[in-house]
Amino acid sequence: MTRLIKRYANRKLYDTQSSTYVTLDDVESMVRKGAELQIVDQKSGEDITGATLAHIVLEQQKINPSFPVSVLRGIIQYGEDFFSLIPWSMTQLRQGVRRRSEALEEGGRAVGEFVEGAQRSIEELQRRVDERVRDAVGQLAHIPEMRQELAHLRETIEALEKRLEQLEDGQGESAGSSDARGQENGVCKS
To answer: Is the pTM of this model over 0.85?
Structure first.
């Protein structure tokens, strides 16, 4: 239901529904809340809703300029034709927004695919590193056994070296004694 507000000669606004005087701020608040208003001049009965709302917009523009000068210039320059351009502009705006959102969506998919690919690469790299670490740890686990084996080999080599020295010492003595025997028997080795 349309709410009727009457403007009196003294510029006071009277809300017929609440039976109270209202200010332009009250009218603005009603419009923001979605109320359907009709503002009429009480004396002539003329509908001044548009002029009153334009006045509210003008007051807002004084306090907090929100319309670019080009828009205000367009309203003055093109008059009613300016508003016929708005549906075309809105269509253009919607198409632009749709194109941008599609591009963002496509970009989002590309980013998602990149992230998934990077994640797979990281997981594969982690798997390879884990395998190499396991292999290295496995090899390190054999080190004590290898040390024992190496110590055993050293002991064996040392024992063989001692035996070899003993044999060499033993042959040197037996060779010297056989030379002495040979000379005793008159046999000469040359």
So the answer is: no
